[in-house]
Amino acid sequence: MAVERTLIIIKPGAVARGLVGEVLSRLEKKGLKIVGLKMLKMSRRKAEELYSVHKGKHFYEELINYITSAPVVVGVVEGDDAIQVVRKVIGPTNPKEAPPGTIRGDFGISITQNVIHASDSKESAEREIKIFFEEGELCSYSRADEAWL
User: Fold this and answer.
1) Which of these is catalytic: 11, 26, 87, 117?
2) Residue range 65-80, pLDDT digits in tens
3) What is the CATH number of the domain that holds 77?
4) Number of structural domains in the chain
5) How far apart (Å, rounded) are the C-alpha atoms in residues 19 and 123?
6) DSSP class of residue 119?
7) pTM surpassing 0.70?
């Protein structure tokens, strides 16, 4: 296993619905560490940088408009195989396909309003983390349960 960092974004609808604590709790209960966290209203420029891979697709403007509509919580999560673990905890992008017990399966409303964004690869994680965090903003620490792992 490799210790990795990945970006998560708790989307506007989830913030408005009071799901921030629930989402973070599920990630922590899975043994992941939150090493960076902030709330912000995403600018259009940052949203376009984040979702540059989707530019030109039919849902691009809806995605940009939604993510910039209200505050989001952005975080960096760290742990063994963090990218894969986070992707399993959150479930598939489409909440209709996400199984119960996953974040998107339990709380997602639509593909756009699917509660959370998470990096899908090491390359994406590295690129996306740099959009929102400087290295000095990320913290290193040991979890109390690491001694048992």
Assistant:
1) 117
2) 999 999 999 999 999 9
3) 3.30.70.141
4) 1
5) 28
6) -
7) yes
